[in-house]
Write a structure and sequence with these properties.
The complex is a heterodimer of chains A (326) and B (326).
Chain A: E1 2-5, H1 6-20, E2 24-28, H2 44-48, E3 53-55, H3 60-73, E4 76-83, H4 91-98, H5 101-104, E5 113-119, E6 145-147, H6 152-164, E7 169-174, E8 180-183, E9 198-201, E10 206-210, H7 213-227, E11 232-236, E12 239-241, H8 245-255, E13 258-261, H9 271-281, E14 291-293, H10 313-323
Parallel strand pairs in A: 2-3, 2-4, 4-5, 5-7, 6-7, 10-11, 10-13, 13-14
Antiparallel strand pairs in A: 1-8, 6-12, 9-11
Helix pairs in contact in A: 1-6, 3-4, 7-10
Chain B: H1 5-30, H2 45-54, E1 60-62, H3 68-71, H4 77-85, H5 118-131, E2 138-143, H6 151-162, E3 166-172, E4 175-176, E5 179-180, E6 199-203, H7 207-221, E7 227-232, H8 252-262, H9 265-275, H10 281-304, H11 310-313, H12 316-319
Parallel strand pairs in B: 1-2, 2-3, 3-7, 6-7
Antiparallel strand pairs in B: 4-5
Helix pairs in contact in B: 1-2, 1-9, 1-10, 2-7, 4-10, 5-6
The chains are: A alpha/beta (326), B alpha/beta (326).
């Protein structure tokens, strides 16, 4: 095992997969000659050449359609959109094209496309139009798969899997591109299968379930929780479509208490679907009303006042204290 | 004359096939024998047939929703018609109708329910052809209305950066539903030259002119230089059968009557064939009679075929190539 950053893990995934399969093409703004704005694609142009590593013009809509055509022709395409907010430009290419054309053809095409981007707040980039979490733009569209890893090992394993997927995957990489984490050694072809949540910490008092910033907040809250004698179970969903429903039900059946911890604004958040599933499947296992710790229904401002919109670790501590009567 | 008598007669039959197919669909609509919206290419036969005649069998095509004149000459007629009827005998089991029909085995990509995608998707597909070192080209079609979508111009930037084997055809039939094409500030063919893409405008009701322009364009595209052909023609009907009163076209009756008398692409070509002694009136009439019998029999068969059922509609394998969950 080694400790590397998220961005290094993604870089390794790209290189390993592109060595393994010469039909993979990656396109995005500033990803070839610049190696990506976070150095996530550093070295790809030198190793794989300009035919497979393409600097795109600022034309996200064309990038998505380009991927559709190239995937239909038989190649595998990765698009790096840089920031999730920019995907609004190519909603059609994703939700009307990639999600639907296989079905409308009654299964004649495969579209192995990874729509990849960073999402989420952090680093005081530019706030509202650069740092949003947007999975709920897509979770309501059937035909897509949606991955949300947070840690380097999951990022590497799921990115390798996403690239191998024959179907369109939206890969939301976490904003914390420089975060360290343990990954297997380079001689391991490390794959993480989607639809399998990761139990980061087992516990018996309360289930904290989520993804992205929600998981990082849960881990930051861990010390305070332990000090207060709360033994939390922390579960990282890692993928939303497919979703590991069994892991969710198993955990809340054990603890009877739920804190859903995510980042996207509450009204349209994917977490609402998880509550709906629980309400239909096993509401009786909850001994207390569940808590939803996520962003308020505001865009993100620039700068430190983001903290008033975003969920904070203290919010998780307060919720757990209330649920556990501490 | 560059084309043999046999070839000229083949082109005539292609246009007759297009006309009769559309007339039969129109009749079925008015008789309530077919569901859905049918956007017919009546009056525009020389464009589609000219394109199909100029292409090699293994050149790819992205048609529009109004490309019957081309598509009937590239695929199995019954499977096309059954798909247009939405029946299970169709190429895509009736799941998409002609509006989304894919026939990869005949090198046909789908027309798009979303206008403005075709040139951008073609750019990606053409890039794949170029990566394979193939000499195939892709011909992508759009109407004058779809040519207003901004995505087209993003595609022009990208296809000139990547230098791909693509021919873009703009079929200007005078109307984007109700939006007249004579109101654009400049001739449509001038739009792409600013991006470095050569273009030409032809009389779309002269099948020889269309075919010659397409052959030159395809030859250019085979050298990885994208180019564009504008074919000027006239839409005889409304936007689709039965559902468009054409309030925006008060002179429709006179305009179409004049076109049918003086600018019918098939009549014009028949005049040439007769004067050049390539065929007699009887021979030409036989083509019409045989086609009417054939196509009407197909319509009867398609009408009797069943619609797709739950097995086709609810099938995770038609949605995903590797279904995990739906």
């Amino acid at each position: 095992m080694r400790t590397i950053k998220n961005v290094t893990a993604w870089n390794e995934a790209y290189k390993e997969e592109m060595r393994r399969d010469k039909d993979i093409v990656i396109i995005g703004e500033d990803i070839a000659k610049n190696g990506g704005i976070m150095a996530q694609t550093l070295g790809l142009l030198d190793e794989f050449g300009p035919e497979r590593v393409i600097d795109a013009p600022i034309a996200e809509n064309a990038q998505a359609s380009f991927a559709m055509g190239l995937a239909a022709q038989g190649k595998k395409v990765i698009i790096d959109f840089m920031n999730a907010d920019f995907m609004a430009y190519c909603m059609d290419g994703i939700v009307n094209q990639a999600a639907k054309q296989r079905y409308l053809s009654s299964g004649k095409w495969t579209f192995p496309i990874v729509f990849l981007t960073l999402q989420g707040a952090g680093g005081f980039l530019a706030g509202g139009q650069h740092e949003s979490t947007v999975e709920s733009w897509f979770t309501g569209t059937p035909g897509l798969k949606i991955y949300v890893p947070t840690f380097p090992a999951d990022g590497k394993g799921l990115l390798k899997y996403a690239i191998r997927e024959p179907d369109p995957v939206i890969f939301f990489a976490p904003r914390m591109f420089a975060m360290d984490g343990e990954v297997p050694d380079l001689d391991v072809d490390y794959i993480v299968e989607p639809g399998k949540a990761n139990v980061i910490k087992e516990g018996k008092d309360v289930s904290i379930i989520g993804y992205g910033l929600g998981i990082l907040n849960a881990m930051k809250a861990q010390k305070d929780l332990a000090d207060k004698g709360i033994d939390a179970e922390i579960i990282d969903l890692r993928t939303l479509v497919p979703l590991d429903k069994a892991a969710i039900f198993k955990s809340i059946k054990k603890t009877g208490k739920l804190i859903l911890s995510t980042e996207s604004p509450e009204r349209g958040a994917y977490g609402n679907y998880i509550f709906s599933l629980i309400l239909q499947e096993c509401p009786e296992v909850l001994t207390k009303r569940p808590k939803f710790i996520t962003s308020k229904n505001y865009p993100l401002p620039f700068g430190p006042s983001q903290k008033f919109v975003l969920p904070q670790p203290e919010d998780i501590v307060a919720a757990a204290v209330e649920l556990c009567d501490k | 004359m560059k084309y043999s008598n046999e070839e000229l007669l083949r082109m005539h039959e292609m246009m007759v096939r297009a006309r009769v197919y559309c007339e039969v669909i129109e009749k079925c609509c008015m008789q309530g024998r077919i569901i859905g919206m049918h956007h017919l290419s009546l009056g525009q036969e020389a464009v589609g047939a000219g394109i199909a005649a100029a292409m090699k069998e293994d050149d790819w095509m992205i048609p529009t929703h109004r490309s019957q004149a081309a598509v009937v000459n590239r695929v199995d007629l019954y499977k096309y018609m059954a798909e247009e009827f939405g029946k299970i005998d169709g190429y895509c089991k009736g799941m998409g109708s002609d509006l989304h029909m894919s026939v990869p085995e005949r090198h046909q990509m789908f027309p798009n329910g979303i206008l403005g995608q075709n040139f951008a998707i073609a750019t990606g597909f053409a890039y794949g052809l170029k990566m394979d070192g193939s000499d195939q080209v892709i011909v992508a079609c759009e109407g004058d209305g779809a040519f207003s979508e901004g995505l087209n111009y993003e595609a022009f930037i990208l296809c000139m950066q990547l230098k791909v084997p693509a021919v873009f055809v703009v079929e200007d039939n005078g109307y984007g539903w109700s939006y007249r094409s004579d109101q654009y500030a400049k001739n449509l063919a001038e739009r792409c030259t600013g991006f470095g893409i050569p273009s030409v405008t032809v009389d779309g009701n002269d099948i020889i002119a269309v075919r010659e322009a397409m052959e030159a364009a395809i030859a250019t595209a085979r050298t990885n230089q994208p180019c564009l052909v504008v074919c000027k023609t006239l839409r005889w009907g409304g936007h689709f059968v039965g559902g468009d009163k054409q309030r925006y076209r008060p002179d429709a009756k006179e305009e179409v009557a004049y076109a049918k008398k003086h600018n019918d692409p098939i009549k014009r070509f028949e005049k040439v064939l007769l004067e050049a002694g390539v065929a007699t009136e009887e021979q030409l009439q036989k083509v019409w009679d045989d086609m009417n019998v054939l196509v009407n029999a197909m319509a009867d068969k398609a009408e009797k075929a069943p619609f797709p059922g739950e097995k086709e509609a609810i099938d995770p394998h038609r949605l995903y190539s590797a279904p995990w969950e739906v």
